[in-house]
Write a structure and sequence with these properties.
Mean pLDDT: 92
Shape: globular
Strand content: 15-25%
Distance between the termini: 57 Å
Number of strands: 8
Structural class: alpha/beta
CATH superfamily of the largest domain: Thiamin diphosphate (ThDP)-binding fold, Pyr/PP domains
Low-confidence stretches: none
Number of helices: 11
Largest sheet: 8 strands, mixed
CATH architecture of the largest domain: 3-Layer(aba) Sandwich
Amino acid sequence: MSENIFDPHVKDIAWCPGCGNFPIRKIMLEMLQELELDPVNTVMVSGIGQAAKSPQYIQANYFNGLHGRALPPATAIKTANPELTVIVESGDGDMYGEGGNHFLHAIRRNPDITAVVHNNMIYGLTKGQASPTTSKGMKTPVQINGVFLEPFNPLAAAIALDASFVARVNALDQDNTKEIIKKAVQHKGFALVDVFQICVSFNKVNTAKWFKEHSYYLDEQHDTSDRSAAFSRAIEDEKLPLGIFYEQKDKPVFEESFPLYQKDKSPLFQRILNKEALEKIAAEKTE
């Protein structure tokens, strides 16, 4: 394979040795290259956290927002220029905790963006307190008697809100993960890919061995168009399914829902600058 144009060959990467973010970075670089995307027309968006550093190590446009605030600017970027490929990459705390409200409403709006969530079931940047997806009973330096809350189920929430693409993968299974993320990026609409990853420093429970023993792949008989079946699989908790749970291909996307877009499909910044076109549209409305 030719040199990866998305790889800036960064040597100083601020993750612990053995961190699950490394295989995800490798997967993302290969995925972007194999889809033959253009770095100039690709935008990576993230919030705050160890996972949110990921776009810093990819050669593409990059917007780094506040904690939990990755999805609103990603939606705005796609709306301003629908020709761009917009990918959000952040962690379970950033996306499901601080960003939980934005997560719900991004699903409702259905912008054509992909959310790749690094889910290590712990807060890694702030050294090991429970995240929204931490297992019940797990002890941390903050939850010294064990977590007593039920973990947030992002897949069940997404399917309940009728998200247009919902999947879960394991970062250590790189080939399958890459192929599913490819499909998510190619999907038109909001695509969620929840990525199981290890945190070697602060999560000694959900290890590589644990993920292997507690997950399985959905078989070919699973109908990804069946929302009820997808929801049933999403709430399984003895063994956690991997694969594409749910997909619908005809749901309208947010950035194409505006009357102005129906008249002029050029990027928003060009439409704003084109005053004559705006005046013409306004005149047609009054006729």
